[in-house]
Design a protein that fits this description.
Chain lengths: 115, 112
């Protein structure tokens, strides 16, 4: 069965430092997509970054990069040069390419950036 | 502007009443989804629909119902059978050729 695991319920990082949020996944599919979303206190879900299972290079979007290690089934989010506005909940998610359009979300990591 | 709208932002109901949450998208997406989020928790899938007039149960469908009569609309009814309906409800849509899900702003439902 598909599963997303985020083992860090909460993280602190100093402003301007880099931080890594962990995500491991489990799937029997060969083709799938991995996502990270940010959820500020307002509740909206903001798409950050996407990695396809066949992508050979790690995805990057501005200060966000995804450290994709397929053999270890991990898809960690790296935020460089943290800003106070990065304080939020972060969710890792997966969608399998075949069959349904169903997405599975992890339980999230609450990141607090310290001034 | 293209996007997903959910209304209302806040909703209050008395226990025992059914309530319908609205979700509309103008992104021409085939797939639409409803999620429930409890405080400090992740998103749990209630129902999803890949095409008009078809939908499937997610992980926590009991006490909820949906319809998909139009591509643009996917309303969720929280029935009186739902034991703990107070939560934050998020609607999302996705295109067949795109992996990304687009989320609405959410509806906070409080049942007393």
């Amino acid at each position: 069965a598909q599963k997303i695991t985020q083992t860090q319920p909460g993280m602190f990082v100093q402003e301007k430092e880099a931080v890594t949020l962990d995500c491991t996944y489990d799937t029997s599919d060969q083709s799938y997509g991995l996502f990270w979303y940010k959820q500020p206190s307002s509740g909206e879900m903001i798409f950050l970054i996407y990695q396809g299972s066949y992508d050979e290079q790690n995805a990057t979007e501005g200060r966000y990069s995804l450290n994709f290690q397929k053999a270890r089934k991990s898809a960690n989010l790296v935020i460089s040069a943290s800003q106070l506005g990065d304080s939020a909940m972060y969710f890792c998610a997966m969608r399998e390419a075949s069959g349904t359009y169903k997405y599975i979300f992890g339980t999230g990591t609450r990141l607090k950036v310290l001034a | 502007d293209g996007g997903i709208t959910q209304s209302p932002k806040y909703l209050f109901r008395k226990e025992g009443q059914n309530v319908t949450l609205s979700c509309e998208q103008n992104l021409n997406h085939d797939a639409m989804y409803w999620y429930r989020q409890d405080p400090g928790q992740g998103l749990r899938l209630i129902y999803y629909s890949q095409i008009v007039n078809d939908f499937q149960k997610g992980d926590i469908a009991e006490g909820y119902s949906v319809s998909r009569e139009k591509k643009e609309s996917f309303p969720l009814t929280v029935t009186s059978a739902q034991k703990n309906p107070t939560a934050f409800y998020l609607c999302a849509s996705g295109g067949q050729g795109s992996y990304e899900q687009y989320f609405g702003p959410g509806t906070r439902l409080t049942v007393t």
